[in-house]
Recover the amino acids of this structure.
């Protein structure tokens, strides 16, 4: 489903060049739950942003279902992100003046969905993440864990194929973080491909595959033992 092929990313900072990724190649199959782990500055978020269409490689290619998104123009990239991708960020990125329902409905406005259908789909997404009773609450009326659930509902509302999560528990206490990780496992079990960036080994271990990156290079790529025992087959639950 996803193939990153010999991708490098170089940023110019004044007269200096910063190499964020060095000749990275990676394949991710549909329905996988992959954690990309590494210290700050390792290149893990840069990799996620390139695969998610938020940034482009300096060299190399990124194929999604055989299509090279690294060569798409801005309008085409926007359509790709809206149709295929859901993003969850550490800082939630919610509009504080809007209710949970209104926040979740927002991506559907850009998709040209009718107001009635936007509301129906947003309500369904909020119910999916356990926030049926919080549709009228604004972010400042909710806990950090609940706000992250709203952002996950917003990522799900367009029924994307891939969910990207960038340090999704970074602003949460340990209990809320555990609950969010459980939610990602439930989402993955429903068939969504989940790609999570983290610096936390305990959280990375909740994924089914762990890709470690350091200094812009992949240094290991491990599938958890239980999946190896199943011959790499995905749980049908």
């Amino acid at each position: 489903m996803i193939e990153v092929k010999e991708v490098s990313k170089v940023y110019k900072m004044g007269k200096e060049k910063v190499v964020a990724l060095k000749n990275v190649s990676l394949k991710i199959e549909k329905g996988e739950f992959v954690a990309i782990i590494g210290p700050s500055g390792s290149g893990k978020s840069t990799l996620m942003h390139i695969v998610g269409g938020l940034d482009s490689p300096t060299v190399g290619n990124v194929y999604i279902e055989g299509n090279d998104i690294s060569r798409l123009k801005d309008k085409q990239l926007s359509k790709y992100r809206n149709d295929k991708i859901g993003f969850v960020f550490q800082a939630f990125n919610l509009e504080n003046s809007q209710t949970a329902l209104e926040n979740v409905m927002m991506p559907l406005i850009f998709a040209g969905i009718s107001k009635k259908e936007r509301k129906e789909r947003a309500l369904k997404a909020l119910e999916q993440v356990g926030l049926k009773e919080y549709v009228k609450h604004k972010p400042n009326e909710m806990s950090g864990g609940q706000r992250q659930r709203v952002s996950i509902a917003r990522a799900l509302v367009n029924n994307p194929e891939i969910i990207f999560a960038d340090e999704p528990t970074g602003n949460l206490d340990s209990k809320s973080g555990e609950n969010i990780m459980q939610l990602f496992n439930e989402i993955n079990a429903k068939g969504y491909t989940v790609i999570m960036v983290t610096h936390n080994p305990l959280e990375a271990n909740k994924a089914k595959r762990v890709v470690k990156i350091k200094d812009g290079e992949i240094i290991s790529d491990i599938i958890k033992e239980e999946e190896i025992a199943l011959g790499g087959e995905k749980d049908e639950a």
About this structure: The helical segments are 44-51, 74-84, 100-110, 115-128, 144-156, 174-189, 201-204, 225-229. Residues 3 and 27 are 4 Å apart (CA to CA). The longest strand covers residues 16-28.
